[in-house]
Amino acid sequence: MSTDTDPHADTGLDPELEPQPEAGVEPERPEPELDPETVARRDAALAQIRSFGDPVLRTKARKIDRIDDALRDEVERMGRLMDDALGVGLAATQVGVVHRLLVYRVQQQSPLAALINPELEWSGRDTEAMEEGCLSLPGVHVEVDRPIHVRVRALNEFGEPIVIEASGLEARVIQHEMDHLDGVLILDRTSRDQRKEAMRTLREAQQAA
Length: 209
Ligand code: ZN
Description:
Elements: E1 24-25, H1 36-46, H2 69-84, E2 89-91, E3 101-104, E4 113-123, E5 127-133, E6 142-147, E7 149-155, E8 161-167, H3 168-181, H4 192-208
Parallel strand pairs: 1-5
Antiparallel strand pairs: 2-3, 3-4, 4-7, 5-6, 7-8
Helix pairs in contact: 1-2
This protein binds zinc ion (ZN).
Zinc ion (ZN) binds at residues 26, 134-136, 176, 180.
């Protein structure tokens, strides 16, 4: 996958927000006007996703040692939730399950990818800064600098070893979701100023709720 993928592919959350020119990762697919049904489905999905302040988001997930039908069901459920939330990636910790599973789909037509116990095997020296959002941080977009190319080893949902060579948005999404499995959020990977601004957005959203 290359960097020509539409970088808006995120889950933006806030319909009033201007579409972010560079929103990456979880938030906002490029749908400027969502129909009410889509919005309702998205909001219902977001309600099931843990948001900032929930300690589970700061927990390091444990390794998965059993790949069975129950896990495959979980992959399917996470895929549905991610789609409904208009996200392109979701980590198990974001739904309160503290084990090393993530799902993603960078292009709408692609099959859902599930990575179990992913390990970063290699990352290129070239990095790129891009705005990212996160389903667990509604309304927040911050710039995150990440390697453009990565190679990740994992197991798929059938327990088969896989190697993913990813670039651009796909590499970014995988790194973002792998961070979740270590309790790391985009707030930890951005500048002090952007973190401050993001914290204000989160505080305001919490007060409004
Ligand atoms: Zn996230």
